[in-house]
Amino acid sequence: MSTKEWLVLIILGFLVEVSTTADPIQILNSSIAVASEGDPWQDMTSDNVNDGIVDYRRTVEKCGCCAALRRPSWVQLTLDKTYLVEKIQIFGRKYDTSFQQFHDIKLSLGRQDQTLKNEAFTTKNQSFAMTILTPPREVDTVRVSDVTQQFDYMTICEIMIYRQADCTPGKYSANCSKECHCLSGPCESVTGNCVTATCKDGWRGLACNETCNPGTFGSNCTNICNCVSNLTCNHYDGGCPNNKCAAGWTHANCSVACNPSTFGSNCSNICICHNNATCYHVDGSCTNNQCAAGWTHDNCSVACKAGFYGQGCSMDCHCDTCHHVNGSCFGSIQCHDGFRMENGFCTNMLEELVLTENRLLTRTTTWPESQRILITMTAFKCQTRRTTLL
Ligand SMILES: *[C@@H]1O[C@H](CO)[C@@H](O)[C@H](O)[C@H]1NC(C)=O
Ligand SMILES: *[C@@H]1O[C@H](CO)[C@@H](O)[C@H](O)[C@H]1NC(C)=O
Ligand SMILES: *[C@@H]1O[C@H](CO)[C@@H](O)[C@H](O)[C@H]1NC(C)=O
Ligand SMILES: *[C@@H]1O[C@H](CO)[C@@H](O)[C@H](O)[C@H]1NC(C)=O
Ligand SMILES: *[C@@H]1O[C@H](CO)[C@@H](O)[C@H](O)[C@H]1NC(C)=O
Ligand SMILES: *[C@@H]1O[C@H](CO)[C@@H](O)[C@H](O)[C@H]1NC(C)=O
Ligand SMILES: *[C@@H]1O[C@H](CO)[C@@H](O)[C@H](O)[C@H]1NC(C)=O
Ligand SMILES: *[C@@H]1O[C@H](CO)[C@@H](O)[C@H](O)[C@H]1NC(C)=O
Ligand SMILES: *[C@@H]1O[C@H](CO)[C@@H](O)[C@H](O)[C@H]1NC(C)=O
Ligand SMILES: *[C@@H]1O[C@H](CO)[C@@H](O)[C@H](O)[C@H]1NC(C)=O
Ligand SMILES: *[C@@H]1O[C@H](CO)[C@@H](O)[C@H](O)[C@H]1NC(C)=O
């Protein structure tokens, strides 16, 4: 590694260090409500702990900014929502410590929907106490209490609560260690919920921190993967493993249907529908199963079976193997009985029969036994009818 690369690494490391140690931010006193237990000394009521005045250098009487509550007592600060609290500072009177103002005070904190937990002070002397939470903790309630009755009053001039600094966009939670994937804007620091309530492609959930279910992708996970063998696709753009789309689909996202008139795997097959109609892009089937003449099967890609041809393979070419589209028996050795090769087609010799003046004329010399009976009956019927008419 070159010196330059090392330098870059060191600078990157420094940046990471800085970003995780950004200074905490004080929660405004307007976001805090105060409740308490214990009678105040004169006008030294509990709301003074949240009045924004930390003039603890002077005596209490002069600043009028402290709370003094007769023990046993507590003061509780309720935040307007849950924050990731990182630091709590408690200020007492600096030059007036003879009151034992902080004697045996205890700090507890947490969320109202859970039990508050006691927390030791990181530093504490007679006029100042502080707790630093590592990592920051989800807190909406902070309580300072003194249940001893050894000294008359618990005196607190100000309680300051600091929250974790804002995470970079896309991060939330303690230490900014979790990721959210909002389409735009940040997510809420504790829950990760996206402010815009809309996720980037491929993500779902209120925090947009969960990938689409297997088999779905894209915006709101509303698109269905179209990969070969039902494999799951890339959750944000729909791309399939090895770019292998399911039959009938194409494009990098495998979500574009084959061009009209093509179908199947890689769109490499041509539709074979009646009147050149478009087929279903997946399996090649034609509207009303109307395949082009000479073709059959669901995908219209199978030629008529031997001996048949034409629309719906419904026509008999009267030879063993004929051309499946036009019925040409060119290549077959001979026509079936009763049919005669003419210009490559096996023609029904019945067409040669001519009925004139009550007489049946035949122009054929190769007249099979079975057909002869049929013709005779036909002629008989005609004669009968003619007789009736006369
Ligand atoms: C917050 O502090 C300011 C002074 O910084 C004070 O004027 C205001 O009354 C305080 N608000 C509450 C709710 O105590
Ligand atoms: C208590 O600690 C604070 C902060 O470290 C300091 O400024 C203050 O002088 C100390 N007070 C006493 C009485 O030791
Ligand atoms: C947050 O960072 C601190 C110090 O770097 C570490 O001790 C703690 O385990 C981390 N907590 C979380 C939830 O990542
Ligand atoms: C997504 O966010 C929610 C709410 O913050 C959290 O409970 C869940 O654990 C997160 N899931 C992942 C995979 O990070
Ligand atoms: C995603 O779904 C949400 C909730 O149904 C909706 O408000 C939002 O407009 C949708 N976003 C897109 C890009 O369709
Ligand atoms: C693909 O999955 C769908 C839905 O789960 C199922 O109906 C279909 O039969 C599957 N196809 C294949 C080829 O596995
Ligand atoms: C797939 O890509 C095409 C072409 O870029 C685009 O028009 C279409 O919206 C994409 N489909 C999905 C579901 O993302
Ligand atoms: C589709 O085309 C791709 C790229 O030409 C090829 O790798 C793949 O094997 C083809 N798939 C099929 C089923 O023919
Ligand atoms: C079908 O398309 C082909 C090629 O475009 C054309 O030669 C033929 O005449 C068309 N047939 C019908 C029935 O439209
Ligand atoms: C049409 O279906 C037949 C029978 O299932 C199959 O063998 C053939 O490969 C299919 N042709 C195309 C182009 O899909
Ligand atoms: C029948 O169709 C085939 C293939 O198109 C062609 O080669 C042959 O000449 C045709 N036969 C007749 C008699 O039209």
From TrEMBL:
Alphabetical keyword list: Signal
Signal sequence interval, chain numbering: 1-21
Coiled coil stretches, renumbered: none
InterPro entries in the cross-refs: Galactose-bd-like_sf (IPR008979), MEGF/SIB (IPR052108)
Keyword check for Ligase: no
The keyword Transcription is annotated on this UniProt entry: no
UniProt-recorded name of the protein: Uncharacterized protein
Protein source organism: Dreissena polymorpha (Zebra mussel)
